[in-house]
Design goal:
By secondary structure, the protein is of the alpha/beta class. The protein folds into 2 domains: 85 residues, Leucine Dehydrogenase, chain A, domain 1 (Rossmann fold, 3-Layer(aba) Sandwich), CATH 3.40.50; 121 residues, NAD(P)-binding Rossmann-like Domain (Rossmann fold). Helix content is 41%, strand content 16%. It has a 5-stranded parallel sheet. Strand 4, helix 7 and strand 5 form a beta-alpha-beta unit. The model has no long low-confidence stretch (mean pLDDT 96).
Length: 270
């Protein structure tokens, strides 16, 4: 069974626009380096924002110093309501320093250590968009309380915050990674499997039981086509699964819009 994420994404965006009460909110995406995927992703975010009546701008920088100065400038501007830095950063940049520089009130990525700390304490003021998208997808189709969830990712962008958000909802997360032993045994016993490893067809049908929910966060290019981390065609025959493209990514973008509106509320704009 394919999980319909597009309808959910549209509902989230519609609610965000409604909550903005006509304010033309502005988000700035800061880009360093020439990572093609980051450039394409930043442009796609701006396109979505403009389609919804908001505004988005891309700022290109050539050094960490210039990036930090740009963040300082945007923090101080009343006409800028959200700030995002596109990752991965070029070699030599200090990711924690960059994330810490963004005002927690304008932190649309939810990655400033202050907002991260709130999440750890159970208060989801501004949370990272991808794990929140996963939560929204799951909550749209199931009750999370008591569920056993295997997350195959331990990064600070997906696996760690997702585990905290699942705990907040009384689920039981198991965080797995490249050093995990007996991974198949763990996934076979899970009610929900979230995979984000950047490897096409990593999660195979024999790794999940019937009626498992599979959330595929991966994005890979195989023979010129986008593929996730799960063997979609085989798993779809026995379990519920999100598609790639049109799955978690669509909801993640919607969550970015939602976070922009939250940021504006925190700043007293709305």
């Amino acid at each position: 069974m394919i999980i319909n994420c597009q309808n959910l994404a549209e509902k989230i965006k519609e609610k965000a626009v409604e909550d903005a009460h006509g304010e033309k909110l502005v988000l700035h995406a800061i880009l360093a380096g020439d990572d093609e995927a980051s450039i394409v992703y930043a442009k796609s975010k701006i396109k979505v924002l403009r389609e919804l009546g908001f505004e988005g701008k891309i700022d290109r920088v050539s050094s960490e110093e210039e990036m930090l100065k740009k963040i300082e400038e945007l923090n101080a501007r009343d006409d800028v309501h959200g700030i995002m830095v596109e990752f991965p950063l070029p070699k030599g940049y200090d990711a924690i320093k960059v994330r810490s520089a963004i005002s927690p009130l304008k932190d649309v990525d939810g990655m400033n250590p202050v907002n991260y700390g709130y999440l750890l304490m159970g208060d989801e003021i501004m949370t990272p968009n991808t794990p929140r998208a996963v939560i929204k997808i799951l909550e749209s189709i199931t009750e999370l309380k008591g569920k056993d969830v295997v997350i195959i990712n331990r990064t600070p962008v997906v696996g760690k915050p997702l585990a905290m958000m699942l705990l907040n909802r009384h689920a039981t997360p198991t965080v797995c990674h490249s050093k995990t032993k007996n991974l198949k045994e763990k996934t076979k016993n899970a009610d929900i499997v979230v995979v984000a490893v950047g490897h096409a067809n990593f999660l195979t049908a024999d790794m999940v039981r019937d009626d498992t929910i599979v959330i595929d966060v991966g994005i890979n290019v195989v023979d010129g086509k986008l593929r996730g981390d799960a063997d979609f065609e085989e798993i779809e025959k026995k379990a519920k699964i999100t598609p790639v493209p049109g799955g978690v990514g669509a909801v993640t973008t919607a969550c970015m819009v939602e976070n922009l509106v939250k940021a504006a509320k925190l700043q007293g704009i709305i």
